[in-house]
Design goal:
The complex is a heterodimer of chains A (about 120) and B (about 110).
Chain A lengths: L3 E4 L2 E4 L5 E7 L6 E7 L5 E8 L5 E2 L8 E7 L2 E6 L8 E8 L6 E3 L3 E5 L1
Parallel strand pairs in A: 2-11
Antiparallel strand pairs in A: 1-3, 3-8, 4-5, 4-9, 5-6, 7-8, 9-10, 9-11
Chain B lengths: L3 E4 L2 E5 L4 E7 L7 E6 L6 E6 L5 E4 L2 E6 L4 E6 L8 E7 L7 E2 L3 E6 L1
Parallel strand pairs in B: 2-11
Antiparallel strand pairs in B: 1-3, 3-8, 4-5, 4-9, 6-7, 7-8, 9-10, 9-11
Classes of the chains: A mainly beta (about 120), B mainly beta (about 110).
């Protein structure tokens, strides 16, 4: 299957700092990427849809000024958690959609802990 | 109408047995139904997917059964192994857009 990477795999930061998470499709070009958040023992919650070269579409209830998404190239999307607080601690996962198909391939996830 | 309801919440199966997980949806516009497997601390991995014009799809030990009239689909894992112990998510999407996920099923295969 297709390979999607995320960096970093885990990050610990102090409250008030900003954290950037990268999502890369390694062996295909993805015009559309998705960002999810997952709490322990829960399902994936879609945060936003990221389209290359345009503004991200955020799900209801997700603060776009807090979770900045940039999809600058066909292989890279970034999620920046601005002014992170302990309640932002979670598992963040990205996915990339295979070109002209519905199939989404997921990255390994990034564990964020805000102290 | 965007929900996908998944059951059971957890499942314990003996090694060699059949694991069955069920999902139901309301939105008849959904046209793509994947299943994902997730191990603790990892991202979900695509297992198998089906479209509504097919009633069954098999890949190795994994089979999806799809009932369009009942708006239900299920995952069958044949000859379940301890290594299959994971959380399984069903999902649905329309036109290649965002996936709507079920709540997940924690599968434990006892050896």
């Amino acid at each position: 299957g297709a390979v999607v990477s995320q960096h970093p795999s885990w990050v610990i930061c102090k409250s008030g700092t900003s954290v950037k998470i990268e999502c890369r499709s390694l062996d295909f070009q993805a015009t559309t990427m998705f960002w999810y958040r997952q709490f322990p023992k829960q399902s994936l919650m879609l945060m936003a849809t990221s389209n290359e070269g345009s503004k991200a579409t955020y799900e209801q209830g997700v603060e776009k000024d807090k979770f900045l998404i940039n999809h600058a190239s066909l292989t890279l999307s970034t999620l920046t958690v601005t002014s992170a607080h302990p309640e932002d601690s979670s598992f963040y996962i990205c996915s990339a959609r295979w070109p002209w198909e519905e199939t989404q391939y997921f990255g390994p996830g990034t564990r964020l802990l805000v102290l | 109408q965007q929900q996908v309801k998944q059951s059971p919440q957890s499942l314990i199966v003996q090694k060699g047995g059949i694991s069955i997980i069920n999902c139901a949806y309301e939105n008849t516009a959904f046209d793509y139904f994947p299943w994902y497997q997730q191990f603790p601390g990892k991202g979900p991995a695509l297992l198998i997917a089906i479209r509504p014009d097919v009633s069954e799809k098999k890949e190795g030990r994994f089979t999806i059964s799809f009932n369009k009239s009942a708006k239900q689909f299920s995952l069958h894992i044949m000859d379940s192994q301890p290594g299959d112990s994971a959380t399984y998510f069903c999902a649905a999407s329309q036109g290649g857009n965002k996936l709507v996920f079920g709540a997940g099923t924690i599968l434990r295969v006892k050896s």
